[in-house]
Prior knowledge:
mainly beta, 2 domains, nine-stranded antiparallel beta sheet, seven-stranded antiparallel beta sheet
Amino acid sequence: MGYRTLLNLNRTKLAKNAGAVLYLDARKSTGNGLPSNSPLTSPWVDLSGTTTQFNNLITNPEMNTDSNIDGVVDGFAKLAESGITASYQLDSSSQKITISNSTIAGNDAYVYQDISISAGDILSISVNAYKIGTISIRAEIDWYNGATKINSVVSTSNATSFTNIKLENKTAPANTTTARVRFGVYTNVIGDTGSGWFKSSIAIKRPDARVGLIGNDAFPINFAGTTASGVDVSDPLRPCWVLDGTDDFFSLVNTPSIDVTSAPLAVFATIKCLGTASGFIISKNLDAVGNIQYAIYWGSGAKGISAYMNGGQRGASLNDSVPTNIWYNVGFIWDGTNIKYYINLAQNGDAYAYNTTLTSRANIQIGKIAGASPFMFKGNIATLSIYAGANCTEANVLKSEGFISKPYIAA
């Protein structure tokens, strides 16, 4: 286990040194092989190889201090809705909220923090809590436009020992400016009373716009289809994502780090083609009808690799250079003047003259392009890398890919 972890870290560092803005590796996957969609439980791996959680937006998330001794833990405010008689105190390093009388059903007493957020942002929250009495405990997000409440999402529990209550991947509606994150006790019927205890709170906003995230949870990753739901680990040294060429693909939510708008740019993948139809291994689309910013495309007729940039095919590799059922590392490097193709780290064919300025939009699609004719790729994908910036030189990229692709192309 230690040897495998060390290899992952070294691959990560090499990718970083070559200017990687994206590096996905099936060997870094966990559980059933998928990067997790849960930002509350899964770490991300940054370009230094450091594993950490996403940034927690809650102030005093442990909820275990009350500096001014007002009963409300530091960083939070309190509110009891109409018909509710409530008290607040710090108890056993937790926020305790008690409803001693209720004359209206369906109202709360809670603590909250307001977080600046924009429409379309994705927010996840959680808190550890339990209760006694007839009340319920809940975590809630209220979406606001200024001082006007738009709507809410709620998770409720009746746990009598500390239990994690969470709301995951909730999208802020149109016109949202603020998310009110609140934890509290709730009356189900008139006369409900009781207490709730709350600690260890989290609020995480995604997609996260950090530059250069890589690894298991680099971006919010959306999987679709059937066999793309896991990694084939029948060969422990060569795990891979398996795509059936019919409806399997996954996509990476767009972030600034993958919006490469100028040279240099390098895109590489370690693949095994299994189909008879042409398909896109990786593509970044300009729009929903399939116009392409950049892509790697496997052509079944030529059994070769082509680059697509700004909507069109830009040169092509030699015929029969990437036959089926064999592992290959494939990719291209564009220096602003020429595109060069590489098959197993060796230049394949002549350089193709191409000078352009890329425009940036949309998500990365893996195993297809957007639009009505998605050109689904049938085969195995083990690694995917995108390089940009000053360190994206031919020597650096090929050194990085040479290490990343072992032992696939050496098999």
